[in-house]
Amino acid sequence: LSTDDLLELGGVLEALPGLETDAQSRVIREFLSSPATRYSTCWLLQNRADIIGDKLLSDLAGNDADIQVRLGAAYALVTRTSELAPDVLYQFLDTPSPDLQRYAARMFAHYTQGFTSEDWSWDNQRSPDANAFLIRAYHPVRNVPQHTKLILSLLDSEHDALADAASDKLVDLGTRSYSVIEALVDAATEGAPAAADVLGIIGDHRTITPLREILENSTSPGLARSAFLALTGMGAPYPDRRSIELATLANAPRLDG
Prior knowledge:
0% strand
């Protein structure tokens, strides 16, 4: 918004405390529902709980029929770091709306410390985008085998965001726990090229021997290629590597045109 528009919007908001609660709700929902005014409204209300309280915003986020109003009200609570914001975001995760699920998961992934293994939850019924953000928001203190197994199963997901989030998280976990690396080795041995790709990114030299065995014994071209690239990335020696020699040309070729 322009400076004049911001001043006009600010004047309207300053007058809200003189209205009844229902009237305040009607006015604020109009500003929050439109992307053109949502961010300016939230910015103006960021430190002004005296104009619009957290309770009113929480009611709009939790009960309004318009999803855009709910998103706007939640954004207002997040920007003012309200104590009610986490409850609203948890509520969004359990709604059937993919937009609300994705927004809540993104907020947890990017603007909070995320989840420990004790409070992280998984629901296949959530949208793939939301679950991808929730994987990124997962920060366990130690390896939890059932969680690792779940994330491993998503490496071959048809949804790119889920597969990428799973790969990135396994790299993160694998650099801190060898148990995760062992799970990746088992998955690669069972025929998962994506697991071998993750092992290559981690680059732990203790995986050279199992990766070499996979390369030598695999009948899957995709798996063999992933194992080969992982070994190459770690600078592992490659015994019996095939090579060819080309005769040296006496004169360099000339290309016309």
